[in-house]
Write a structure and sequence with these properties.
heterodimer; A: 497 residues; Aspartate Aminotransferase, domain 2; Aspartate Aminotransferase, domain 1; 3 domains; 7-stranded mixed beta sheet; 3-stranded antiparallel beta sheet; 16 helices; 12 strands; 36% helix; 10% strand; B: 465 residues; alpha/beta; 2 domains
């Protein structure tokens, strides 16, 4: 089989007239002209023509060109690549879930509504904020909900504010969300300890500020002990405090955003609550809010009535409305609910404790001679569930960049950490092992990093040219962006050779 | 329980001691020293104790059994999501670890499977819509429409959206919510005999209009004259929301002057899942390539000249462009979109046409059959493909409850979303609803309407099996 054959698309396979699906016999009288000619498609969409065996083999082969969490260590910072229990896939697939129509009458969807209600209650308890909407479909969608809720809250009070504050360490979704919600982004600096520069915050917090969006622990993996003071400053100017829940895995059962003074929190159910990432979704980004934000929450809301049954409440005059259709990513709710039920209060706390233990242990291992001089920790403190190393000395002394280290890790069967984020740290590596990894896995990772650095002292070219063992090697991303080919050309003479 | 509380966490007591020693900390507690005492919870979370896998499975089974699924009743529910047959090979592929458990493909050398699947998906959506550019998915249909409105604002900076009343009510509400952030006004144009009133549509579009938005087939099942609607858009961005199965036989938006086509992807091999996860598709003309939201996979070569795929045009995206990004989307619906392209490949070039044609013929049969019943009249007589709306001369909720006793769900009560259509019922057909099923619905509906007329009270329909 040629190398080219490995990357043939489904559109380049098959043969005219071949098929996998067989239509049911037409059991009603055929009537011509039901669709007037001017509304009718003239030629069929050029979809693949493949048999089922061909189709299955194609996608199974594609799947084998992926690295995945079930195959190896995946310490991707800020992404919480924890184990995805297979039990969750089984229960989500029960017909009562998988084949439940979203517009089923609520009285015949009581199990689903009860599950959503219980998940909302659990998330409220975990966050320390009383009201939850499960609707948003990802963290960034939850962020948009939070900022639009803030807008509604202020407008209801007759206030028009124009700015939202985000730390310079923020995830890119924060500033992008702020723009979509119609505000101007104002950056707040970071102090020498990796926390919010409180003086800078105080200088920038004024009556034009609608919200401060914050992650705590921050994207540097550090808990900001000034949070009470930060909350006071933000609330002092009448703004809301928004919690980006990307890093919630560090604090479950230990401290709660609501108790820190946050008004709005989003959860990434595909991070802390085990929804598999699927190669880029699906996820879910529920939000929890304080009393003062509750009137504006999205519709519908799940409510429990006096007789103990559950309803969908659409009649909420101050609501911002909907940010998507139906009830949200219910299949994700089922998995996350199963996870919370499996762990319980004690298990959730243990998950966070071990996540932090694993991160600090891995950090300790990477402080060894032969590593720390090339990859020093960016902020030398006890970390939470993740930590940031800087590859700047490695680049200077060994002539290999963080990117090279990341690519060389692939040859050792390890997924690289998040690289070049946070932007504040030069040649950054953001490492999050999660609680579900064993000590042996962490030990091996530290050895692999040491080995790659040792190898680079001998011959840095090895890392610079890596990877070698992957289905493809380094790809020309500049070419992809300059001459975008983003679909398969279907006139066969157009297919690049 | 001992040191290890959950089987998902592997640190034994011995591990913990060894790790703490390496860290130089006395206890795990000490690792949380940065958290001020006053902010610590100081008590266990008020949640039920953890449970074994078999206990959790039993609880979830009981909850699922308290729902009435499309396996439990003869269902004609539609309204944006449809009970199509999902082939077993999709379950198999989407549960493979290699596709289920990776993150977004940030390391392309070890993500060629996901990236190539995105590229293939984009090709399929491009073919379906007749538009050259498609992204790798957004959350769902309504949010896709809202993202299209954002694209229109990026394109022309205007703040007025003209929206057909035939757009799904959830999508109109989503547009309104996003419009608050855009500072845009939403103007809804009414329908006339089931389709967008073309005169009112033309009158509503002015020089300040950023985007015009319609849906086809619309919420009430009617196929819109997309060429006429898009043709009237002037230099505003013409946005159409489409049903992907109907596109098997309906003129593709790219041939009608539509600039951006979006839609709900659930009908393409995705489960109902009480509304999600599924995916939203998003396609556009070449002109809007660099304003597209979300991920886009592109073809390139590696250092050895081998064909490969990467996430491309990333300078549009939030992690590079931050506040100037074309959207805030990060995690989307990759696995669901993968199911979409597998499904379209499974149907194949001829299969999609045959499926849509089957729906067209059966939907026509169902409409004729139901409208022949005393007390049932069509809400409109515009052409339909997979769904149609009728009016009942009885209380629709009571009729629905009567039919529920016979394990028949006749469709969506339009009054739940549209107060002006309190007497309306939206009936959807899929390849899983045969002529015999339609006949059974018709008989039951006729009886229920007769009983209502006779004034008999329906017995309560139970929620459980």
């Amino acid at each position: 089989m040629s190398a080219r054959d490995d990357a043939l698309t489904i559109f380049e396979r098959g043969s005219a007239g071949r098929r996998a699906w067989v239509a049911p016999p037409l059991d009603v009288p055929r009537v011509e002209g039901l669709l007037p000619a001017h509304l009718r498609r003239a030629r069929p969409a050029r979809l693949p023509e493949v048999s089922e065996p061909e189709l299955v083999r194609h996608y199974v082969r594609l799947s084998k060109r992926n690295f995945d969490l079930d195959s190896g260590f995946y310490p991707l910072g800020s992404c919480t690549m924890k184990h995805n229990p297979r039990l969750h896939e089984r229960v989500a697939a029960f017909a009562g879930n998988a084949r439940l129509h979203p517009l089923q009458e609520p009285r015949r969807a009581q199990g689903a509504l009860q599950l959503m209600w219980k998940l909302e209650r659990a998330l409220a308890e975990i966050s320390g904020l009383p009201h939850v909407s499960l609707q948003p479909s990802a963290g960034s969608h939850g962020e948009l909900a939070g900022v639009l809720l803030t807008r509604a809250y202020h407008e209801d009070r007759g206030e028009r504010r124009t700015k939202v504050l985000t730390p310079d360490t923020a995830h890119g979704t924060n500033p992008a969300t702020v723009t979509m919600a119609g505000y101007e982004v104002v950056k707040v600096g970071t102090n020498a300890d990796g926390g919010v520069d409180v003086d800078d915050l105080r200088a920038k917090a004024d009556e034009q500020v609608a919200c401060l969006m914050l992650t705590n622990p921050s994207t540097l993996g550090l808990f900001d002990a000034s949070i009470a003071e930060i909350a006071e400053i933000v609330h002092g100017v009448g703004a809301t405090l928004y919690y980006d829940g990307a890093n919630l895995n560090a604090i479950m059962g230990i401290t709660r955003p609501g108790d820190m003074g946050f008004d709005i929190v989003h959860f990434n159910l595909h991070k802390s609550f085990t929804q598999p990432h699927g190669g880029g979704g699906p996820g879910a980004g529920p939000i929890a809010v304080s009393e003062r934000i509750e009137p504006y929450l999205m519709t519908p809301r799940v409510v429990r009535t006096a007789d103990g049954s559950f309803e969908l409440d659409e009649e909420r005059p101050k609501s911002i409305g909907k940010l998507r259709g139906f009830q949200g990513n219910y299949g994700v709710f089922v998995r996350s609910y199963a996870y919370i039920r499996s762990l319980g209060a004690e298990g959730l706390r243990e998950a966070s404790e071990v996540a932090v233990l694993n991160a600090n242990y891995l950090l300790a291992l990477l402080k060894r001679a032969g590593v720390a001089e090339y990859l020093p920790v960016a902020y030398d403190r006890v970390c939470m569930h993740e930590f940031v190393l800087s590859g700047a000395p490695m680049k200077r002394e060994l002539g290999i960049r963080t990117l090279d280290l990341a690519k060389r890790l692939l040859d050792f069967g390890v997924h690289p950490p998040t690289v070049y984020f946070p932007l504040l740290v030069e040649e950054a590596l953001l490492i999050e092992p999660t609680e579900t990894e064993t000590k042996e896995t962490l030990d091996r990772f530290a050895e692999v990093v040491a080995e790659i650095l040792r190898e680079a002292t001998q011959d840095p070219e090895i890392a610079r040219q890596a990877p070698y063992s992957t289905p493809v090697r380094r790809l020309d991303e500049a070419r992809a962006a300059k001459q975008p080919v983003i679909r398969q050309p279907l006139d066969h003479e157009d297919v690049p050779a | 329980m001992g040191g290890v509380v959950s089987g998902y966490t592997s640190a034994t007591d011995a591990d913990r001691r060894a790790m703490l020693e390496a860290i130089g900390a006395d206890s795990i507690e000490a690792l949380f020293a940065d958290i001020p005492r006053a902010l610590r919870l100081g008590r266990p979370l008020d949640l039920p104790a953890g449970a074994t896998q078999q206990e959790v499975e039993a609880e979830l089974r009981a909850l699922a059994a308290a729902n009435v699924s499309t396996e439990d009743e003869l269902s004609f529910l539609g309204g944006g999501m449809y009970d199509h047959y999902v082939p077993a090979l999709i379950d198999m592929l989407t549960s493979r670890s290699e596709l289920l458990t990776p993150y977004t493909p940030y390391q392309p050398e070890v993500s060629q499977g996901s990236l190539q699947a995105m590229f293939e998906y984009q090709t399929a959506i491009s073919e379906l819509t007749g538009l050259p550019v498609a992204n790798a998915s957004v959350y769902d249909g309504p949010s896709a429409l809202a993202s299209a409105a954002y694209l229109a604002k990026l394109a022309n900076g205007r703040r007025r959206l003209v929206v057909s009343a035939g757009v799904h009510p959830h999508a109109i509400e989503t547009l309104r919510a996003y419009a608050r952030g855009l500072g845009s006004e939403v103007v809804v144009v009414p329908l006339a005999n089931g389709v967008t009133d073309l005169d009112a549509w033309c009158a509503a579009i002015d020089a300040e209009t950023s985007g015009v938005v319609f849906q086809s087939p619309n919420f009430f099942g009617a196929v819109e004259d997309a060429a006429a609607l898009a043709g009237a858009s002037g230099d505003a961005v013409a946005i159409g929301s489409y049903d992907p199965i109907a596109l098997g036989i309906v003129t593709p938006p790219g041939e009608c002057g539509v600039d951006v086509c979006v839609g709900e992807g659930q009908p393409l091999g995705n489960r109902l899942d009480f509304g999600g996860p599924s995916f939203g598709f998003f396609a556009a003309t070449q002109e809007h390539l660099r304003r597209m939201p979300g991920r886009i996979a592109g073809e390139t070569v590696d250092v050895d000249g081998k064909r490969g795929f990467v996430l491309t045009l990333q300078t549009r995206e939030q992690h590079i462009r931050r506040e100037k990004a074309t959207s805030n989307i990060c995690t989307a619906q990759a696995l669901n979109a993968l199911a979409g392209v597998v499904y379209l490949s499974w149907l194949g070039r001829d299969g999609l046409v045959e499926l849509a044609e089957t729906l067209l013929q059966r939907t026509h049969y169902a409409r004729e059959t139901l409208c022949a019943i005393d007390g049932v009249t069509p809400l409109h007589d515009a052409p339909v493909v997979r769904e149609f709306a009728v009016r009942l001369d009885a209380d629709v909720e009571r009729v629905v409850e009567r039919l529920a006793r016979e394990r028949i769900n006749p469709g969506y009560r339009l009054g739940r979303a549209c107060p002006e259509h309190a007497d309306g019922l939206l009936v959807a057909i899929t390849e899983q609803r045969s002529r015999a099923d339609v006949d059974r619905l018709a008989e039951a509906l006729e009886r229920a309407l007769a009983s209502e007329r006779a004034g008999a009270a329906p017995a309560a329909a139970g929620g459980t099996r």
